[in-house]
Amino acid sequence: MISVRAQIGWSTHGHSAVDVNIYSSGGPGTEALRGNVENTDVGAFLREYLRVDVDAVTKELNEKMVQSVVPDAVREESDHWMAHEAMEYRRAGIVREAA
């Protein structure tokens, strides 16, 4: 779904297990990303380095998504995945009856 929405094509539809290089122009604290770093550690580093409250951002985005694209009947259930599904159906132009 994300690939369709972002209009991204992939060279593979699975994981290739190939290392991916990340480059930096430097700055304080960037030495934490030297050498071989696990992908989840990159996310943790960026969260801390950029001082991003991921939980607050996620909550705000979910609230905006539910308010803007989800029909009232689905919104009342406030289920994240139902909201996601409703949004994708709407983007695809498929009309669904509310449960």
Task: Kindly describe this structure.
By secondary structure, the protein is mostly helical. The protein has helices at 2-6, 39-49, 54-69, 72-75, 80-92. The protein folds into 2 domains: 19-52, no CATH class; 54-92, no CATH class. The protein is flat. It contains 5 helices and no strands. The longest helix is centred in the middle third of the chain and has 16 residues, at 54-69. The model has no long low-confidence stretch (mean pLDDT 76).
Set down the secondary structure blueprint:
Blueprint: H1 2-6, H2 39-49, H3 54-69, H4 72-75, H5 80-92
Helix pairs in contact: 3-5
Short description:
The protein has five helices and no strands.
Oligomer: single chain
How much β-strand is present in the residues? under 5%
Number of E-type strands: 0
Helical percentage? 40-55%
Notable traits:
single chain; 99 residues; mainly alpha; 49% helix; 0% strand; flat
